[in-house]
Design a protein that fits this description.
The chain is an alpha/beta fold. The chain has 2 domains: 6-125, 3-Layer(aba) Sandwich (Rossmann fold); 128-225, Orthogonal Bundle (Arc Repressor Mutant, subunit A), CATH 1.10.10. Helices cover 42% and strands 21% of the residues. The strands form 3 sheets. The chain has a 5-stranded parallel β-sheet with strand order 2-1-3-4-5, sandwiched between helices. A 4-stranded antiparallel β-sheet has the order 6-7-8-9, covered by helices on one side. A 3-stranded antiparallel β-sheet has the order 10-12-11. A hairpin with a 4-residue loop joins strand 7 (136-139) and strand 8.
C-alpha cells in the first residue's frame, strides 16, 4: 500500500521519530523528519507535506509559535504530539489551527486512525464542493444548505458558521477560533453571541435540537461537527 504525499515529523526526540518512521512507513507513508522548529518550517515549505506531526517542546522554539507560523500559509492538517497535556496547551493549539492533539505516550493505532481522518477530510474539502451528512447537504460553492432535499433558510452568517464547522468535521474548534473566522478579531471574546447562533442553527439542521448529533458542544472549549 502506498499513500500519496509525505508526512513531516517535527520532533527533537530521536526515539519518537524512529518509532513514527517505522510505523508510518509500514503503512505506506513517505516520511520526512526535522528535529528543530526552524528545520521544520523549511521542510514544510519545500516539501508541502500532506500532513505535519508537530511536537510542542522543540529545542529552538515553542511548538505553538511554529504552528502559528505554519498557519500563515500551510492549509493541510497538523496533528500535535506532545507530553504537554494541560487544557491551556490543548486549547491554544486548537486555537492556533491544529487539527488534532495527542499526548505522549500514545497508541500507534489511534495515531494512524487520526491521520487517516485528517487527510481524508482535507482531501474531501479540496475535491468536493458539496458536503453530505445524512439528510443534510451543504453546497459550499452556492452557499446553500438542504435538509431532506428542502432548502434551509440561513442568513449569510449562519451559513458561514455551518460551513466552517462542517469543513472541519470531527475536529474541535475553540470558541475564539470560530468567532475569529466567522465574525473577526473584534468578536473573539463574545462566546455568548456564538451560543445564540449555534442554538439557531441547531433548530434548523438537527432532527432534535435538544439532542444534537451534528453541532456538538465540547464543554469549556468550543464545538465539534459530527461524532
Amino acid at each position: 500500500m502506498t499513500n500519496e504525499g509525505s508526512i513531516l515529523i517535527v520532533d527533537d526526540e530521536v526515539q519518537i521519530r524512529r518509532l513514527l518512521e517505522i510505523t508510518l512507513s509500514a503503512n505506506g507513508y513517505k516520511i520526512s523528519e526535522a528535529s528543530t522548529g526552524k528545520d521544520g518550517l523549511l521542510l514544510a515549505a519545500s516539501l508541502n507535506p500532506v500532513l505535519i506531526i508537530l511536537d510542542l517542546g522543540l529545542p529552538d522554539s515553542d511548538g505553538l509559535e511554529i504552528l502559528k507560523k505554519l498557519r500563515e500559509w500551510y492549509q493541510k492538517p497538523v496533528i500535535i504530539l506532545s507530553v504537554r497535556n494541560s487544557e491551556d496547551d490543548i486549547v491554544k493549539a486548537l486555537d492556533y489551527g491544529a487539527n488534532d492533539y495527542l499526548t505522549k505516550p500514545f497508541r500507534t493505532g489511534e495515531l494512524l486512525a487520526r491521520i487517516r481522518v485528517a487527510i481524508r477530510q482535507s482531501q474531501v474539502i479540496q475535491d468536493k464542493p458539496t458536503l453530505e451528512f445524512g439528510s443534510l447537504s451543504i453546497d459550499l460553492a452556492n452557499h446553500t444548505a438542504r435538509k431532506n432535499n428542502e432548502l434551509i433558510k440561513l442568513t449569510s452568517t449562519e451559513f458561514s458558521l455551518l460551513a466552517l464547522l462542517a469543513k472541519n468535521e470531527g475536529r474541535v474548534l475553540t470558541h475564539q477560533y470560530i468567532l475569529k473566522e466567522v465574525w473577526g478579531m473584534g468578536y473573539v471574546e463574545q462566546t455568548q453571541y456564538l451560543r445564540v447562533f449555534i442554538a439557531q442553527l441547531r433548530k434548523k439542521v438537527e432532527d432534535d435540537p435538544a439532542k444534537p448529533k451534528l453541532l456538538n458542544t465540547e464543554s469549556g472549549i468550543g464545538y465539534r461537527f459530527g461524532s
